[in-house]
Design a protein that fits this description.
By secondary structure, this protein is α+β, with helices and mostly antiparallel strands. The protein contains 22 helices and 22 strands. 37% of the residues are buried.
Length: 732
């Protein structure tokens, strides 16, 4: 999700004005409006914004309608356990009518689907309660088809009951076998001589009761979902029928999105979880206001919340989102929590809200000690930027700081880990490329109506670091991650290792839907009490441009292929099931003219480096098992049935788990790398026991990562070649 960070790539003011002028909504009712009218305005505004500003808007026609219809039905009931055959026959009338309804701001399809769904949720609760009252026999030879696409919809009554029965029997069987396995392990324990063990019949009862509780919790969560949350989901099905990355955010979701992108927010700094109707502290974030206050602990239950000296509010039974909302607030204000500790003591804890930084979002580094010297490792989970203006941190500045730390440690090479990095700030990836390239073209950006523009790194006259460099990517490295990997590959500045990236080559811009309203409608929205408190209707994350590599190729659909391909667990998937390719509304791949740039040729003997690594990978037992496991899973996927016979099911699972168990054992016992912290980070890490423990676990996981281990080997190969590295300045 690329956000514009520079003036030169901000949406031109004229385009915003043109978009606003495109709309002609008139709202003259001055005494407020119904929720239905608000919904109509949101839909019409969102879809007209797409038509006016999208990179390549699709026609809102019968094809659009059929896609939305199918996606909505599947999203609400992917397992075909709620909607009956009769329900689908009723909803079928809307399959080719949604486009007409959208143009009118009509929500008849959504209203009908929602009403039917809620009735079926209520009905399903009665069904599974009835099913789970009777014991299951796991000696019969019945089979469950797991692929919902191969199942039709069941008729109401007996047919739906039998479907639930088979589904619940499968879940109960899995739980039952888990309980038996746990009990068998206890029997093997020497201290279990006087222990009491349950019979198979008693374990079956326990398994059914567990599944019943689980289902009840799930239904309870479904019922707590607010109507506006379901409506937001519907609007997103409409927008994503244009392309998978055009999304609607109501005001509250926009704030949450900004927080995720910035890695910081204003609050108390406690992670919460819901256990039945109780809100429980999972973790107090190090350095946060709660941590500094000192009284709030993990496992404390929050019973009441008060704003300063106001009357406390009992939050028992509240949805977690609602609890978070009243605990959050403005910086410097006080919230008072009435909590019950694990020992039963109840007390009131006053906490002043402040900026909370989520360290796991930010770049961090470590040292890998090898026989030939130190290798630096930088982990970057996302391309964050501070849209909330709370911490002022950006990923490009943070990575530059980490690079300087590693240089001061005398590292012989640097690994930048972009695996599972879904992207983020476009401006920051341009700046970050300059850390390793100096000045020069980084990426080309093009709208559907203009010529390409070249974005250049200007933050550094020369590269901040010009030594051996490796970039790690995988199937989940997307967007900004692909830009950085692509430009460093095209410049021949770094070796790219891992697997082909996600393939998201589009650029999104946040467009305020409020700005698209005519003045009278906007004025009346401010007095609207049915939606957001400030009358806002939200924003649209709109696909407005595509980006292209400096060599002219798009990363869209095809992604970035690594110089050195490593076996990946996702190799079990077919090509069209992975990344951008699995979205049926994804934009197409294309290419444009290359930009003018001069490769650095930092690794002139790439073929030799690749050959050495490929030979190691080919002969590595762990990589062999990863490949074998992926191939086995791919074969098994063709048969999506599972036996509900205990003996046969256990045999199937043993076969499936055999390779995974070997792989797990290899990784568990592996001692691949010696990891250490950067000296400059030690004071921050040693601030408390929780931070020390978290850091220890992180280093341990890095040390056992075979992909990092092979990347270290690759960098050592580059060093051994004694190349004369020249960084020739890039130019247009």
């Amino acid at each position: 999700m690329l956000q514009f960070m520079k003036n030169k790539i901000l949406i031109p003011l004229l385009i915003v004005c043109a978009l606003a002028a495109f709309f002609s909504f008139k709202y003259v009712k001055a005494d407020g409006k119904s929720s239905q009218e608000r919904r109509a305005i949101i839909i019409k505004t969102a879809m007209k914004t797409i038509k006016a500003g999208h990179y390549s808007p699709r026609a809102i026609d019968d094809t659009f309608s059929a896609n939305v219809y199918k996606d909505m039905i599947t999203s609400f009931d992917g397992e075909k356990l709620y909607f009956t055959k009769e329900n689908i026959n009723t909803l079928k009338q809307y399959e080719y009518a949604i486009d007409d309804q959208v143009n009118m701001g009509n929500t008849e399809f959504f209203d009908s689907l929602e009403a039917i769904y809620l009735r079926r949720v209520d009905a399903s609760e009665k069904i599974f309660e009835k099913v789970l009252k009777k014991p299951f026999s796991f000696k019969t030879d019945d089979v469950l088809e797991l692929d919902a696409d191969k199942r039709g919809y069941a008729s109401a009554g007996t047919e739906m009951y039998e479907r639930w029965k088979k589904f619940l029997k499968y879940r109960t069987l899995v739980k039952y076998i888990d309980l038996k396995s746990e009990q068998d392990k206890k029997r093997e324990n020497k201290d279990s001589v006087n222990a009491k063990f349950k019979t198979d019949a008693e374990l079956e009862v326990e398994a059914r009761e567990s599944i019943l509780k689980s289902n009840k919790r799930y239904i309870k969560r479904l019922k707590k979902t607010k109507p506006e949350q379901r409506f937001t989901f519907y609007v997103n099905q409409l927008t994503e029928a244009e392309d998978p990355h055009t999304s609607y955010f109501p005001p509250v979701d926009k704030s949450a999105f900004d927080e995720r992108m910035s890695g910081s927010f204003v609050g108390i700094g406690a992670r919460l979880n819901q256990v039945d109707d109780k809100t429980v502290i999972v973790e107090v974030i190090t350095g946060s206001p709660s941590w500094k206050q000192g009284d709030l602990k993990a496992e404390d239950e929050i019973m009441k919340v008060a704003q300063g000296k106001e009357e406390p509010v009992d939050i028992t039974g509240w949805a977690l989102d609602d609890v978070v909302k009243i605990i959050r607030g403005d910086k410097g204000t006080e919230v008072r929590l009435t909590v019950k500790s694990k020992d039963g003591a109840v007390k009131v804890i006053p906490i002043k809200r402040g900026v909370v930084e989520l360290d796991e979002v930010f770049a961090k580094s470590a040292i890998i000690k090898t026989e030939t010297g130190k290798i630096g490792f930088i982990y970057l989970p996302e391309f964050y930027a501070d849209f909330n203006h709370t911490s002022r941190r950006t990923c490009s500045k943070d990575v530059a700081i980490e690079v300087e730390k590693l240089k001061s440690e005398g590292v012989n090479g640097i690994i930048l880990d972009l695996r599972y990095n879904g992207g983020g700030s476009l401006g920051d990836v341009v700046d970050m490329a300059g850390i390793f390239l100096g000045k020069g073209p980084v990426v080309q950006v093009k709208s559907g109506r203009s010529k390409p523009s070249v974005l250049e790194s200007r933050s550094y006259d020369t590269a901040l670091y010009n030594g051996p460099l490796a970039i790690m990517i995988n199937q989940n490295s997307a967007s900004a991650s692909e830009i950085l990997a692509a430009v460093l590959k095209d410049y021949k500045r770094a070796v790219i290792v891992g697997s082909t990236s996600f393939g998201k080559g589009t650029v999104q811009k946040m467009v305020s839907l409020d700005d698209m309203l005519d003045p009278m409608t906007r004025l009346n929205m401010l007095h609207d009490t049915t939606g957001a408190s400030d009358g806002s209707i939200g924003v649209l994350k709109l696909t407005m441009e595509k980006f292209y590599r400096v060599n002219g190729n798009s990363t869209q659909l095809r992604g970035v292929s690594p110089n050195i391909d490593m076996p990946d667990p996702y190799d079990s998937y077919d090509e069209d099931e992975l990344g951008e390719r699995h979205y049926k509304t994804a934009l197409k791949w294309d290419e444009i003219a290359p930009a003018k740039y001069t490769p650095t040729n930092s690794i002139p003997n790439m073929d030799q480096i690749v050959a050495l690594s490929n030979n190691r990978i080919k002969n590595n037992e762990t990589f062999k098992l990863i490949t074998e496991n992926a191939q086995f899973i791919k074969t098994k996927k063709e048969d999506n049935t599972v036996s509900l016979n205990e003996v046969k099911y256990k045999k199937e699972q043993e076969e499936i788990n055999a390779i995974s168990k070997k792989l797990e054992d290899l990784q568990k016992n592996a001692e691949l790398l010696e990891m250490a912290n950067v000296t400059a980070d030690l004071d921050k890490i040693n601030v408390d026991s929780a931070s020390i423990a978290k850091n220890k676990d992180w280093l341990k996981s890095l040390g056992k990562d075979i992909y990092i281990a092979e990347t270290v080997n690759i960098l050592n190969d580059i060093r051994k070649s004694n190349m004369n590295v020249t960084m020739g300045a890039a130019h247009r």
